[in-house]
Amino acid sequence: MSDLQGIALQGIADHVEIEALPGEYTDAAMTRDYDRFASLFTPGAAVRIPDAGIELAGRDAIRAGIEQMQAKWEFFVQTTHPGAIQVDGDTATGRAYLCELGRLRDGMSVLNYAIYHDSYQRTGDGWKFTERVYEVRYLDTTPLAGTPYAAAAAETDLRITTRTGESQ
Question: Could you give the maximum distance between any two Cα atoms of the chain, in Å?
């Protein structure tokens, strides 16, 4: 393999690894795996949510912050979609687009579309976030009519039937 081919393959690998980070972030948040969530950041990283006045600096603050924020939700669903990525050696920038749906424990419902503006750093453990800045693009606080599935199933004896006819 030529040096040029090796550089091209490394570029592809970098894009794949970076593109996986927002999905890992969403999965760790939704499963409330706060240690894994924090591990996606460099030690000096920052998370900024300007519209909410939130700024978390450092991996420990990010871990504590996500745990505190998640505790406020009755339920929370986040879907993430990849955006552009620009790699420049051992650093990169990119965006991730997301939709969030949930209800806070105080009863407020939220449906929003947002963008994370991200910065990344290659580390000995792979690519990590150095900064995530959250920009809300659309917010709807109309009360949600539904309930979390587990609560609805318990209240109505709702069951999922498989193709073989078995109830779950």
Answer: 63
